From TrEMBL:
InterPro entries: Cyclophilin-like_dom_sf, Cyclophilin-type_PPIase, Cyclophilin-type_PPIase_CS, Cyclophilin-type_PPIase_dom, E_coli_cyclophilin_A-like. It catalyses: [protein]-peptidylproline (omega=180) = [protein]-peptidylproline (omega=0). Keywords: Isomerase, Rotamase. PROSITE patterns: CSA_PPIASE_1 (PS00170), CSA_PPIASE_2 (PS50072). This is Peptidyl-prolyl cis-trans isomerase. The lineage of its organism: Bacteria, Pseudomonadati, Pseudomonadota, Gammaproteobacteria, Nevskiales. One of its GO terms (biological process) is protein folding. PANTHER family: PEPTIDYL-PROLYL CIS-TRANS ISOMERASE CYP38, CHLOROPLASTIC.
């Protein structure tokens, strides 16, 4: 289990630069433990930011450079009731329409997205579990990258791929 007293720090090295995250294991213990397990397993290494919407968010953690979806572990319980808000520079779990479907995919909020906070539009919202402490300029650079269409996503896919070269605990 993750120590909840000390923030967990993760370095996302990307083709656009480095992003340092501070994860809140006290307020989102299951989500942080899940994310840390994916980091330790090397799951994020070589994956792309596959959905980028300026002013909204940048999303990654699920697809490789050929847009093949990477296998994941079972979904986790949604911890969106933890009091953390989807503000610019926070990291949250991506999910489907099912509230408890988050596995490996995450997004970094590029803007303040209050409508994603608990209870959201579906009674749950999206679980924030940390924030960018260094590299918000890299998040901005990724958010400002030109996007287009690519299978299987349709639109909002970076024309030039942004790759997570590694994710490491620091």
């Amino acid at each position: 289990m993750t120590d909840t007293a000390t923030p967990v720090r993760v370095l996302l090295s990307t083709s656009a630069g480095n992003i340092t995250l501070s994860l809140d294991a006290e307020k989102a213990p299951k989500t942080v433990a899940n994310f840390v397990e994916y980091v330790k397993a090397g799951h994020y290494d070589g994956l792309v930011f596959h959905r980028v919407i300026k002013g909204f968010m940048i999303q990654g953690g699920g697809y490789d450079a050929e847009y093949n979806q990477k296998r994941t572990r079972a979904p986790i319980q949604n911890e969106a009731k933890n009091g953390l808000k989807n503000k610019r520079g926070t990291i949250a779990m991506a999910r489907t329409g099912e509230p408890h479907s988050a596995s490996s995919q995450f997004f970094i909020n590029h803007g303040d997205n209050d409508f994603l906070d608990y209870p959201g539009q579906d009674g749950w919202g999206y679980a924030v579990f940390g924030a960018v402490t260094e590299g918000l300029d890299v998040v901005d650079q990724i958010a400002n990258t030109p996007t287009g269409s690519a299978r299987p996503f349709g639109r909002d896919v970076p024309v030039t791929q942004i790759i997570i070269t590694s994710a490491t605990l620091i």
